[in-house]
Protein: NAD(P)H-dependent oxidoreductase
Organism: Streptomyces sanyensis
Amino acid sequence: MTAPRTAPAPAPAPVRLAVVSAGLGVPSRTRLLADRITASVRGELASRERPVEVTVVELRDLAVPIAHHLVTGFPPSALEEASLAVARADGLIAVTPVFSASFSGLFKSFFDLLDPDALTGTPVLAAATGGTARHSLVLEHALRPLFAHLRARTVPTAVYAASEDWGGAGDALTGDLPARIGRAARELAVLLDAPAADRAPQPDPADLFA
């Protein structure tokens, strides 16, 4: 008697990863850092056989819609789509340049416009770029409190890249920046690979922006 065939296990659902970059230049070191971190997270999840869907939100392209929303209270369609992508994501990478020893106004304005419950329980990897290592404390005195207020789950390792962390051509990394990126990526991947039941419940994102 032939044993019944067992159905193959269903493929795991893709991990939805949102990447918010607040760089103003084209290209920008902020976007470059965001791309390096994203690639490292992809690699960590690939080692766990988890497919990834990445949505990149370039805040530079949304500066005018963000300003319109601030003064009118109604998000233009491009900003609403970006906000929904962040709210629906399983995890978030958020990278800002340092302005006046804090996050940029554009970065803060975007997160100010999200519903306060949009990031509840969402794993977040916070990162920043700046001209000097003296500004690295922005990760602790500005970014962590912001995401704690939004009730997100910020990974233990945040990533800061000063000018001296980059090679002279801007496309090579020196120092221990690769190690910091790798450690933070592993921490985020562990949270993203955890069963959904182990994560804090989140509201339906579609209701947050109705």
